[in-house]
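so my prof wants the structure for this chain in the tokens format not the other one, which i didnt know existed until like an hour ago. anyway here's the sequence
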Amino acid sequence: MRKLLFTAIITILMTGMFNNAKAQFSVGPGLGFATDISSLGISANVGYEINEKWAATGVFTYFLEKDYVKWSTLDFNANYNLTEIENVGTLYGLGGINVTMAKIDIPGLSEVLGSSTSSSDFGLNLGAGLNIGLSDKMTLAPEVSYTISSGGYLRAGAKLMFSL
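here's what i got, hopefully its the right format
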């Protein structure tokens, strides 16, 4: 079921990407915080504007190590522009898929067990954000999302995107 859902989402996104010549790439850094991870996250973001309403985004986030645990996430989202807020920016909803990875490496225990322990979890993202145009090529995007999974968590942060 997960493979079918993933294939369907990728097919829809790819079809939209290649059917519209207006599309535009953007990249940028971001900062955020996740509730159950309880650590600051640093992200690398890429976006692809499919048309005036739709965009596809990919995000890799590395969370600063806390209590011997290293967390990271990989997200693929579709953003849909809901409305234009006068003198502020564009409000959008987001939905997509998530992979959350954790690695536990306790000093001294690795020598006893032979290696560190790691795990990953798949989930769905739901959230909203706001694209605030700072210039023709730069956009600030504060965002809040919830990842639905066995270890679900709320994330809040912002990214600074540069159009290519």
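also thought this was worth mentioning. The chain has two helices and eight strands.
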